[in-house]
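Module 6 notes. Inverse folding takes a fixed backbone as the condition and produces residue identities as the prediction. Think of it as a translation problem where the source language is geometry and the target language is the twenty amino acids. Below is one complete input and output pair. Work through it position by position during the lab.
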């Protein structure tokens, strides 16, 4: 039996972002949830086999959108799906949820890729990625075969390409990342609900998932304040961030009508 207490997992090698599948399951979760969830997922996803549909449900959707951090995160993006948010607004929120559910993906972006982005070159090579993975899992006392490590590396890079953080085919590089203001505000709202406020919100490491520095975050906060999407005040390194609505659905209405 697998050790569920291990810090890193290999789930991302099964398909990367799987955006279309995740969106379909988010929009239909009440119908899928239950004893025959696998069969219902198979009907919705239209995979060639029931086993592939179950795999998508168990290895991707459930860890990310049911048992991830925050738990039941499908509700977070469901509010946007119901309001017809555009894909360019939706995708960053799906990415944020996915990265928070996968330690290796999260740390690769926030500890490694952000420095690549700032280096000026921006090229991301699979051999360097697998070397980074090997060091990280080794430091955590885990060991994967070279084949598994390579597949996980490819899965991470493919997911980041699908989420718009990377671009290119066989030769990938850091993309010009643009986080829409509505997406930024919505993620900030949920970070506030998770207990972060003031400086801890502005300086949260989650913003590094979008390759942003605290200075860029502060600039986006000011822009959102000017558009009355939130209330942002700062004095030196002291920050206060408030939102016009406390209820998630009502705040989604503020952003997406």
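Target side of the pair, the amino acids:
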């Amino acid at each position: 039996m697998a050790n569920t207490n291990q810090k890193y997992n290999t789930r991302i090698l099964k398909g990367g972002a799987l955006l279309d599948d995740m969106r379909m399951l988010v929009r239909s979760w009440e119908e899928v949830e239950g004893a025959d969830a696998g069969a219902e997922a198979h009907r919705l996803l239209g995979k060639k086999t029931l086993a592939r549909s179950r795999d998508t449900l168990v290895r991707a959707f459930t860890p990310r959108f049911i048992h991830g951090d925050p738990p039941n995160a499908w509700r977070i993006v469901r509010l946007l799906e119901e309001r017809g948010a555009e894909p360019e607004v939706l995708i960053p929120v799906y990415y944020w949820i996915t990265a928070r559910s996968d330690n290796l993906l999260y740390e690769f972006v926030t500890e490694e890729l952000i420095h690549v982005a700032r280096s000026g070159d921006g090229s991301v090579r699979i051999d360097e990625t697998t070397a980074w993975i090997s060091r990280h899992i080794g430091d955590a006392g885990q060991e994967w075969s070279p084949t598994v490590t390579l597949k996980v590396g490819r899965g991470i890079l493919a997911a980041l390409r699908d989420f718009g953080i990377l671009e290119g085919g066989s030769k990938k590089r850091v993309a010009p990342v643009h986080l829409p203001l509505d997406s930024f505000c919505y993620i900030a709202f949920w970070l506030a609900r998770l207990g972060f406020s003031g400086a801890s919100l502005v300086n949260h490491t989650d913003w590094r998932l979008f390759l942003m520095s605290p200075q860029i975050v502060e600039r986006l906060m000011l822009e959102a304040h000017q558009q009355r999407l939130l209330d942002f005040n700062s004095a030196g390194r002291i920050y206060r961030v408030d939102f016009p609505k406390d209820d998630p659905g009502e705040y989604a209405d503020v952003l997406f009508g």
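Reference fact for the lab report: Strands lie at 123-124, 166-167, 172-174, 231-235, 238-242.
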